[in-house]
Specification:
The chain is α+β, with helices and mostly antiparallel strands. It is built from 10 helices and 21 strands. Strand 3 and strand 4 form a beta hairpin.
Length: about 375
């Protein structure tokens, strides 16, 4: 069994989901580590399997494609910890507690850096100069007349807006409204009971054409990882709305996960009352990767070794510019991204399942990151 070797670095994926649901994530990341040539054993650790900073038991993968539970006596102290799939009811609170408990381990997503991502308004501030929607924040502590004045000033400029909680997760209470819809104010009031409200201009004029479900909105989830020197956008998937009239959503809210290559190969835009096909180029993909890597750099600005958010899931939509080029528009970032087992390389042709290589080179302490990065990105 791969995790039996004492010569390997250990990566503990600490999760709160059902064990069976997390096995695919453990195996996918262990395969990535093998392919990257990194001496890293991936351990899937349910939060109840921790004792202090030690791991009592874990999901581990073997070379036969099986994932099983292994006991550790005495408890194993992991070299690296990555917090994923925590209970939605108190996801950010659990992250803070577990991040503190595992403070001796290098953390892929330490809580202080993850807080920057959880606060959507702060992320947008840090992304100043990058392509983002127009937005405004309605803080709960503002008097009602000032809240309404600020919201109405924003709504005058944008016919359709997205209303969401500033620190929400997994698409909770994210809704799209026409500016004059009276339900908009009801929804703002609902969110203000527990969080600040972010109003965001609707962006994304490209649609994915599904032969069975028409022209649907979509968002790209792009995974960006730290290689020890810089951030690289490596993989992702598309989140597709359940119908033509619906908003892009997570699977928990009725959305679908599709391979990026499938969606990018079936894009259309509206012109003169008709849908016309648009075909992206390799340069368009490079732009997606550059904007995503730039967003990760900006989010981590001022953070040093051991403080960075080393892996993140960026959500973006795609606008077609007047010159016919793709504009990737940053929406938000998830420091605990779900669905990693569905990720594939960012490419125009479909590829095998893949999450990250460069993160494993960083974890494994490779001294040849730049050379190996060149090999990987030349290949995909």
């Amino acid at each position: 069994m791969y995790a039996d070797s004492t010569d390997l670095s250990t990566l503990a994926l600490v999760f709160g989901a059902e064990v069976d649901a997390f096995c695919d994530v453990v195996f996918a990341l262990q395969v990535d580590a093998w392919r990257a040539g990194a001496e890293v054993a991936v351990l899937g650790v349910q939060e109840d399997w921790l004792e202090g900073e030690g791991v009592l038991r874990a999901l581990v993968a073997d070379g036969e494609g099986e994932v099983c539970i292994r006991e550790f006596r005495p408890p194993l102290r992991p070299d690296v910890a990555w917090l994923l799939h925590l209970p939605l009811a108190d996801e950010q609170g659990r992250h803070r507690i577990l991040s503190s408990a595992l403070r001796s381990a290098l953390q892929v997503n330490p809580y202080p850096a993850s807080e920057r991502a959880d606060d959507k308004a702060l992320a947008h501030q840090l992304w100043d100069g990058l392509p983002t929607p127009a937005w405004t924040l309605l803080p709960r502590e503002l008097p009602v007349p000032e809240l309404r004045r600020r919201a109405e000033a924003f709504l005058r400029d944008y016919p359709y807006v997205v209303v969401l909680p500033d620190r929400g997760t997994e698409g909770r209470d994210v809704e799209r409204f026409r500016a004059g819809d009276p339900r908009l104010w009801e929804h703002i009031g609902c969110i203000l009971r527990y969080d600040d409200v972010l109003l965001r201009e609707e962006r994304g004029n490209l649609r994915f054409r599904d032969p069975e479900a028409g022209f649907r909105r979509f968002a790209l989830r792009v995974h960006v990882a730290w290689d020890g020197r810089c951030f690289r956008a490596e993989s992702g998937f598309a989140q597709v709305a359940p119908s033509e009239d619906a908003f892009p959503a997570s699977r928990g809210r009725g959305g679908e996960i599709r391979p990026i290559a499938e969606v990018l190969g079936n894009l259309y835009f509206r012109e003169g009352g008709r849908w016309r096909r648009w075909v992206p180029t390799e340069e368009d993909l490079v732009r997606v990767q550059e904007v995503s890597a730039g967003a990760a750099e900006a989010l981590n600005r001022g953070l040093g070794e051991g403080e960075r958010l080393c892996f993140l899931g960026l959500d973006l939509v795609c606008d077609l510019a007047p010159d016919g080029s793709l504009v990737p528009v940053l929406l938000e970032v998830n420091p605990r991204p779900a669905g990693l087992q569905h990720a594939r390389p960012i490419a125009l042709q479909d590829r095998d399942l893949f999450v990250t290589s460069v993160l494993f080179w960083y974890i494994g302490g490779s001294q040849k990151v730049s050379e190996r990065s060149g090999e990987l990105f030349g290949a995909i």
